[in-house]
Amino acid sequence: MVSVPSRPGVTQSFLIVDMAEAKPQAIALLYTGGGGRIGLRREQGELKFRGANFLVRAAPELARDGVQPVVMDAPSDQGELTEEYRVGSAQTVDARAVIAELKHRFPGLPIYLVGTSRGTISAAVLGRELGAEIAGVVLTSTMFGSDNSRRRVPSLRGFDYGGIGSRLLFVHHQEDGCEHTPYASAARLAARYPLVTVTGGKPPESGPCEPFAAHGYFGREAQTAAAISAWILKRPYSQHID
Fold this sequence. Notes:
Layout: E1 2-5, E2 11-16, E3 26-31, E4 41-43, E5 46-48, H1 54-64, E6 67-72, H2 83-87, H3 89-105, E7 111-116, H4 119-130, E8 136-140, E9 167-173, H5 183-189, E10 195-198, H6 221-232, E11 240-241
Parallel strand pairs: 3-6, 3-7, 7-8, 8-9, 9-10, 10-11
Antiparallel strand pairs: 1-2, 2-6, 4-5
């Protein structure tokens, strides 16, 4: 667990996942879904955090493949991350503080932003704002938005992905049942951007917009993480996981 000052009076905490024996070849800065808070803390000397999110579950797989996972928490002045924060300038300042620390600790390694569900809003916006400061962006279970939702939910509806000035990969489960992350929207972008399509997995043990369902690649974590790692490291990767 590392905390760095970002804005006046604000600290940004993040988790650098243990790589064990693997040598890092790239860094993946992970933006989780939901409220974006993983609750990083130490209790009686033991590190604690919430581990249900797909990217947190996939982090050990990324590490084994040579990608250093770094899990972002919410900054100290935020509870659950709001849409205003995810699209605003404060998030960019916080991200730059973390990236500066990572470049100091891991000189020369390319840095990728990886978001899932609501975290894709952060990753996409930061991909646009940071430009050449990062090497690429991976969007998994992207918040494309729904025409049928009874309530307004933050999304990337109308976002110009062409404004992301680095490499871009979409990853999506074909059976994603969350109304805000329809697979059809990812499929429509496949003519312009690479897309990893995932099928199958375990029967859901959570709601359709929650981690233990197709939305969170439940039962397909390892294969999905392997495809992401391979793309980041510019190796051949599976575009269809079944």
